[in-house]
Amino acid sequence: MPNEKTLVVIGAQWGDEGKGKIIDLLSQNAEVVVRFNGGNNAGHTVIVDGKTYRFRLLPSGIISPKTLNVIATGVIINLNGLLEEIEEAEKNGLLIKNLYISDRSPLVLPYHILLDKFYEEKRGNKKIGTTARGIGPAYTDHFSRDTLHVGDLFDKEVFKEKLNYIYSLKKATLSSDFQLPPFEEVYNSQLNTFEKLMEKGVTITDTSKLIYDHIKAGKKILFEGAQGTLLDINFGTYPFVTSSFTISGGVCVGAGIPPQSINKVIGVIKAYTSRVGEGPFPSEIKDELAEIIREKGQEYGTVTRRPRRVGWLDFVALRYAKRINGFTELAITKLDVLSGLEKLKFVVAYKYKGRIIDEFPSSLNILEKCEPITEEISGWKQSLKNIKNYNDLPENVIKYKERIEKELETKITIIGTGPARDEIILLKDPWE
Ligand code: IMP
To answer: Per residue in 75-114, is it b (16+ CB within 10 Å) or e — as a string?
Structure first.
């Protein structure tokens, strides 16, 4: 069912594009904000009036008291993590009401976290560099049909029976180095947390129907993507990916809505590239400039605080992201971090065994041997602080933006000039 008021926000790179800020801007006018993939491996940072909010599972619309916030079926839920996050948000003065969670969402249980660490250890020098939140093992259980769902907690006996069965399977898998906590402890803790969430007014329901009703009523709905295109389980740099569908198609499978209900897809691009964890990164900067950008951009994991690797904008990867997601417009973030650099680069193609490649390779073996072919562009000296009008931006910022637009044949309609909520230039309101 078409609805002209649905927006999807997707990270165009390896996550950490600054989606939190864009989502915050758009959710101020949204009636419903929906998370549709991932779990508490995500970390969306929003800064309002000097106060920093970090969301992992909570939709960023939680800042606005009027918005309906939905955690849909494609999201895996660590109940204890969610409760902690809610308590932290309450301490920060946020009111947690209007929070709806899918009864079909898979649970992340303590053994998933142990298994995540266990597998990483076993991988030796082939580590993925996961966030150790149990994400991979929880999605694995889901696909192998051994998952427990949030809705199972409504019936203690059913939950106990299912958990008991799965517990014996997990015990047999984990080595003695990774002792599972006692069954009763996990069972009681899940029930207690579930009850506390109910007391806080969280609603567990069929979120697919809830979203459908709002689409039908013509409400403004924002679908908030977590991670980024190149971390998608199918189309990312496998195996150095997360275990969910991070692309725009993930909205349909994660929220349970038909494709024709999606109107616009906004791709969020950071003005340079970063990636946390292992895996190929053709545009990576390997000299001391990387350290300068990392420090200036505070490129450290929101969840794990790990230093992120940084690189130039990669047009090969971005053209691929545009194709996979069908971006209708773009937002660019963190341009301010590049202020002061004399020369900037774009990766325009790759060289592999003497051949020029301009399509993002599906083979990791090829990708990791690709050398970047770059194009240089002049930087800008000025700080972008306090610039509120597009025409006041340094000329070279505008040239940088226009070069990206030309390459991706898509307009940049939102420009981030700093971390705070109001450090943003809106050229065209996507809700209109
Ligand atoms: P997992 O999602 O914890 O399994 O981690 C798999 C890969 O995805 C690792 O390289 C993580 O660093 C990366 N990853 C997961 N979530 C995020 C995110 O929100 N931002 C950036 N990278 C992420």
So the answer is: bbbbbbbbbebbeebeeeebebebbbbbbbbbbbbbbbbb
